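Protocol step 6 of 9: fold each sequence in the batch and record its structure tokens directly after the sequence line. For illustration, a two-sequence batch is reproduced in full.

Sequence one:
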Amino acid sequence: MLRKGITESFGAAIHGLRTTHLTDGVINRSKRMMLDNLGVGLLGTRTAVFNKVLTYSQMFTSEERSSVWGKSEITLPPPYAAFVNGVAVHSMDFDDTWHPATHPSGAVLPALLALAESLPSRPSGLDLLLAFNVGIEVQGRLMRFSREAYNIPERFHPPSVVGVMGSAAASAKLLALSPAQCCHALAIAASSAGAPLANAATQTKPLHIGNAARRGLEAAQLAQMGLEGNPAILDLDSGFGVYYKDYSPSVMADLAPGDFKWILEDQDVAFKRIPAHLGMHWVVDAALAARTKLENTVGDFDPSQITQVTLRVPPSKYVDCPSPATEHQARHSFQFNACSALLDNKVTVSSYTEAQLNRPALKQLLSKVRVQTPEVNTPSFDKMYCEVEVETQGQCFMARCDTFYGHWRKPLSQRDLVEKFSVNASTVLSTEGVEGVIDAIGNIERVRESSILSSYLRMTSSEHKQFYSSRML
């Protein structure tokens, strides 16, 4: 089906949105997203998957060079800097999650920072903030073209579809492309969209974010050079509509002052307290509460006394992993995260190490877990719940989590968000670098040159201190 004017309205909005459209609420929420994204990205530079893609990307050269976060001596061509920094952001599944389901920031911020460093006229912090919000807004609009998108995904990883479009839109904004060029950037990006969900819980999943950042940036640069795609890419079922069974797009709203409404204004994001799939936060909180009930009744916690653990969770095959063998599988396992919480009374970064995965006590407890998927438990991050029921010899202890701390209904306090960033960033950056990023993001709308952020992101520490391995918000 051909619908007229939808892509054209997106191109006009990407081009036409101004800093005067930004509201205090959107500025505040987007600054929180940026800070969290940088923190989890810096922590992610210590992972095996990041180091693999960094080694690969160093084979490419160009006159233009952009920073690799947490690496004081390494620069890459801007698209590859966007790629490796995007991979770092999602390497531990620690980045923000939106509703409908996607990771909105990781595909946009790495692209913008890499691009900003390469432009002859350095964008201001306010320019960066506007472009970031344009990229987030486009993702939010696209996801609302389908009811299917509101549930936990089943076929493809959403950032690989809407993320590349958000990166293209944000990059187009920073490049000040014309409305027509913005349309072509979206069309070019659409031909790089998509990644199967079968690669979730593997080392390839973080590449979905890195590829979205890189390919969106490249799409905008190609559009700037005059490359064209289908100018009705969003209007067609055979265009962006191929990704959704119930595709029903609509035009972008009027940009008249006071009439434009940002999606982020009404729909906040979730910030994670543990480096795992968002669904794991419900089961961890329920398991911790069930353990507390057990201890309050019988005293000391003795896992050998547990006869069965029942998890009541929404149906989702890719996070139902009864015997995880890798850290990436563990991050996508209701069973593993519930058992880790029960055994250790916490879940942290170090919970997903090989040593923790292979503990005999963990394997024994995993063998006692059964999973139930009640029909009323909707596979949606806005509606789901988790129950954990622990049975011992003659007693039963059950706890339920409807909304975890960090969810958009129960957001992290600013203090806890900054602490999460500081702990993550301190594993890589010096104190000056950590404090510099916090200050720059906190005052981003007043920063003269956004490239100052990249300077702070290169201030590495000679003594890497891993605080987060033993802490949980």
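Sequence two, same batch, same settings:
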Amino acid sequence: MINFLFLNGATSEVYTVGDEEEWNAEADFVSWSQKYKFSVGDVLRFTYVKGQHNTYEVTENTYRSCDVTSGVLAKYESGDDQIKLKQAKKYWFICNVPGHCLGGMRFSIDVKETNATSGDNITNAALTPQMESSSPINSCKSYAPIRWSMGINLVGFGILVRLDF
């Protein structure tokens, strides 16, 4: 079987926290955060009514306790907070309006390094189709790509033959 390697581009994604529900007390942020794979360079967009919510980036202990007397790394209160994920690490976010964090307005994400740094750095190996290795124990498997392509050629030949008659 022929496997082509497809590279993720160096593009970053913008994720609206909570999707259509946005950053509010009714959304399920744990489920939301588990739907995506976040990479360095991605942006989290927290959309909410200014004054009704806020966004705090915090440490794990602050995330677990919802106590912001320590462990606050950054505060955002614009109503349209856009936070670029600059490092591969675990991030924790909460809303610090009284009762909101304990009520579920919090989530954590694990940000990974990107797979490709730019389109200019694509190697020839990444563009070259690679065959599965064949083993002497299962010699039939090594002929699978040949049988498959031969079947297509025979079907194509059969169509051409029928067109001539």
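Proceed to step 7 once all outputs are recorded. Observation for sequence two: Confidence is low (pLDDT under 50) at residues 1-8, 117-161.
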